């Protein structure tokens, strides 16, 4: 299936989820994340969900990271350059939704990409090889290419994988793991 078709399919599936479904499935994903072999790492990049798009609620994972005294990194997107700037999330960080309803830090302590150890990657869908379909803007692919080679990339999905995403591009970065409410998928890179 092509990314365009996949995006339409999974946007529709997400729109069918109730608020209760979203919370239960997001909590199940967070519980699975606890079992990943990542907890010796220090800098964790996480996305703040676009609630209008019924994204995985990462608040549960934020609590896990905070409870384990991890350094939490969130990003601000520049839609002209398609680049992200990364900031340390602290008690003083002010978050504001941008024009696309993406919650972002207003400012703060900037974190260089080479410090980041683990990235939780937003997606609409993924396949059994570890490829993902996002919203199609390329922000995360561009960001992940800039990261150190040993970065751990973890997708978060409410749904199980597609067999195959047919139109994978050379710059598409594969995931190491994808966590669903039911299972953790691990991919060979």
Characterise this structure.
- With 189 residues, this protein is α/β, with parallel strands linked by helices.
- Helices cover 24% and strands 22% of the residues.
- The chain has four helices and eleven strands.
- The strands form three sheets. A seven-stranded mixed β-sheet has the order 3-2-1-6-9-10-11, with helices on both faces.
- The protein is globular and about 40 Å long.
- It starts with a helix and ends with a strand.
- The mean pLDDT is 94.
SSE diagram, text form:
Blueprint: H1 3-15, H2 19-33, E1 43-45, H3 59-67, E2 71-78, E3 83-88, E4 95-97, E5 103-105, E6 118-121, E7 125-126, E8 132-133, H4 139-146, E9 152-156, E10 177-179, E11 184-186
Parallel strand pairs: 1-2, 1-6, 6-9, 9-10
Antiparallel strand pairs: 2-3, 4-5, 7-8, 10-11
Brief digest:
By secondary structure, the protein is of the alpha/beta class.
Strand order of the largest sheet: 3-2-1-6-9-10-11
The count of β-strands is 11
Q: What's the multimeric state?
A: single chain
Low-confidence stretches: none
Query: What share of residues are in beta strands?
Result: 15-25%
Helix content: 10-25%
- Name the shape in a single word: globular
Pattern of helices and strands: HHEHEEEEEEEHEEE
- Helices, by number, come to 4
Through-space gap between termini: 22 Å
> What is the structural class?
alpha/beta
Q: Largest beta sheet, briefly?
A: 7 strands, mixed
Mean pLDDT over the full residue set: 94
Rg, please?
A: 15 Å
